[in-house]
Design a protein that fits this description.
It is a single chain. With 277 residues, the chain is an alpha/beta fold. It folds into 2 domains: 109 residues, 3-Layer(aba) Sandwich (Rossmann fold), CATH 3.40.50; 137 residues, HUPs (Rossmann fold), CATH 3.40.50. 36% of the residues are buried.
Length: 277
């Protein structure tokens, strides 16, 4: 992990993401790229020698000033920080910026939704997650003691997610984190112990992850609801983060096909990282 991209809107949640990114940068000797999306209309940008052009320049200068104030933080000292202001209006264009800067990770703040479904489905976060070719870390609250020593990878062992699983395992292996895989067994899609183990074995084999400890230590956890099971298990093993795979075309909506209505508020503070298939 050498470069981390942080999209910001100068909100408190943006600062939470920035602080987490700074912690990661210090631990991994990485640099930061802080992005602000202007989203100015084409009407403003195409009329030169006019009041609209002056207005566009004004907004650009204002963004630069806000950058200066926003980045005046003690926790950024000693870290290389680049800034960029882009006239993007669509969140999927963040992926273009990530590619341009050769970023390894995107860290985003999310505005206070309570459960996994509420954080992701239909949100700007999902738009980034759906298109990003690199991992996306979603931070919901201030976390001054942020760490990734132990992460929980939640998966149903669908072969489609084998590639994302391998990316995640390699990412956390590279930083020395404990990588715990869990399968949540629900009444709607109940499997026997033998069925779960066979499914896990085929999945691991297909993924190409040649580490028998990952399979041997895989947990099988029963719960009535998928989301509740993910958070309850993560809480029991004292995980620092939940990691989930995502599909580019369908985003995360398929992950919540059980129609999970209840938000698990007590466990929603955990950061979430996604890996695209």
């Amino acid at each position: 992990m050498k470069k981390i991209l942080i999209p910001i809107d100068f909100s408190d949640h943006s600062e939470y993401a920035l602080e987490v990114a700074a912690t990661l940068a210090k631990k991994n000797n990485a640099s930061l790229v802080v992005l602000h999306m202007m989203g100015l209309s084409e009407a403003i940008l195409t009329k030169d020698e006019s009041r609209e052009m002056l207005e566009a320049i004004y907004y650009m200068k204002l963004a630069e000033k806000r950058f200066s104030d926003f980045l005046d933080k003690d926790y950024l000292k000693g870290i290389t920080v680049e800034t960029t202001v882009q006239n993007y209006k669509e969140f999927h264009e963040i992926n273009t910026v990530a590619n341009d800067f050769k970023a390894d990770l995107i860290v985003m703040g999310s505005h206070g939704a309570s459960g996994l479904k509420e954080v992701f489905v239909g949100s700007n976060t999902e738009k980034v997650v759906r298109t990003s070719e690199i991992p996306v870390l979603v931070v919901k609250n201030r976390n001054k003691d942020f760490k990734m020593d132990k992460v929980v990878f939640a998966c149903d062992f669908n072969i489609d997610f084998a590639g994302a699983f391998k990316k995640a395992w390699e990412f956390f292996e590279s930083i020395g984190a404990e990588f715990q895989v869990v399968f949540i067994n629900t009444p709607e899609k109940f499997l026997s112990n033998q069925e779960m183990q066979e499914r896990a074995f085929k999945f691991m084999l297909h993924s190409g992850v040649e580490n028998t400890d990952v399979y041997d230590n895989t947990a099988y956890y029963c719960d009535y609801r998928l989301e509740h099971g993910i958070y309850s298990f993560s809480d029991e093993v004292d995980a620092d983060m939940v990691v989930i795979p995502t599909h580019g075309r369908r985003g995360l909506a398929h992950f919540f096909s059980e129609n999970i209505g209840e938000a698990i508020v007590n466990h929603s503070d955990l950061p979430i990282m996604t890996f695209k298939v």
